Structures are given as C-alpha cells and as structure tokens.
Amino acid sequence: MCDKPIPTATTKYIDIGVNLTNKRFYKDLSAVIERAQTQGVHQQIVTGTNLASSIEAVALCQQYPGSLFATAGFHPHHASENQPLSWTELQAIWQQPEVVAIGETGLDFNRNFSPPQQQLDSFEQHLQAACTLSLPVFLHERDAQDAFFELLAHYRPRLLRGAVLHCFTGSPAWLKRLLDLDIYFGVTGWVGDERRGEDLRAAVPLIPAERLLIETDAPYLLPRDMRPKPKSSRNEPAYLPHIAQTVAHLRGQSLAAIAKQTTDNAKRLFQLP
Fold this sequence. Notes:
The protein is α/β, with parallel strands linked by helices.
C-alpha cells in the first residue's frame, strides 16, 4: 500500500465489481489501484469467486483499508467446490469487516462448468446465508432466467439488505421482470459493445436511478468503444469513468449526475464509509 497521499480526480466513482486477485494484475497491482484512484475511482469492491479468491480478496482489502472491500462466495462455475468444509471456511470469511456482500453467486447454464443442480443448491445456500447474516447478495446469471428468478423471488422478502445483479446484460423485458424484485443492476463496459450490447443499451435508460450501479469487472470486458483504444486488452478500474460516460449518454444525463447517483447507491447497498 502506498504510504503517501495519492492525488485523485474531483469526481468520485465506486467500482462495484473488480477482480483484482486475477493473475493478470499480479505484476502491477499497486499501480493499477493508483491509476484508478487518480481517475476518481476511490473505492472498489473486489469479487470473491471461490474460497481461495475470497480469502485473497479479504487479505488485499486489509492492505487498503477504506478503499477496497470484498465479496465472498462461490461463483456458479465453482459451485462444485462448495463442500461442507469449504462452506464452513467461507462462513468464517463473512465475519470479516472487509466483506460487504455474499457472492458472487447465482446460476450460469451457458457453460455448466458445475452441474446445474449443484449450482442451484449452492445458490440457495448463499441466499439463505444472506438472509441470516443480513448482507446483500452479489449475483450472476447467464442463460438461466427462469430458475434464477424463481429462487431469488422466493428469498427476496427475507433479503433485508437487497441484491445486485452484477454485470447485467439483459433485455428491457428481463429488466422489467427483475424490477419486481427491487434489486440493483451493475452495468459494465458491455454497454459500449456495438456487437453484443444492443439489449443492454436499450435497457440502461429504463433502470431506476436508485437502482443503478457501475462496474468494470476488470480484467474482463474492456469497453470496445474506448478511444484511443488501450494497448492492452486488460480492463482496469481506471476505465470506470468511461463506462459512466456511456451510461450518462444513453440516459440523457450528465456524467456528474451518474457519478453521484451510482456512488450514493453503492454506499447505500454495501454500507460503505
């Protein structure tokens, strides 16, 4: 961690989903965090996707108190790793003050890296834990809308701290269905992809202001509409203002308004200082 103040931009942002424990950040992680802060990304939530990455995320956050926070859970790809012993260890991680959400969890029937039934069982365990611990849920869904909605709807009344569908890429119809559950939506650089992002671009103006969040999901999902195009294909949290600008354009709002709204929303959902 830097021991001297880092100059930051006036406009403040919060990246609600960044994979700083990914190996693509190993060589220059401190520089990545510093670049983000100079661009106004003053807080980031490091995503935990299995036991090992959740432990690593918490340890990283402890090096940057007040700046980095973590989620902890089993991504649906890793649902098969959710065994009694690892689940017990995960429960201990949730007690750490750096952990602000349970997850990443949910369903991904696109690749089925873990069998669907194991995904369903793991997802339900996470939802039950969120109800018990009164923490928000950090969600993932791909090609599993009906099963995802049914399980989330069942537990939503007991999720007192709510939920966010991270990396939302869905259509206006899927958005409207999920709005019945009163959840938050994380928008990534997918919104700038003219090939695959048409549904999301149509949905973004329909997201209620109080439910809008922004994220990079770095090192994944480098925005295709960045100009000049970065030399590296690695996405960084420093690029979050670009995503905010695209969202602002689609919603007919100023960048400052999007920055303030999404920052206020993130602080409220995750109870950030």
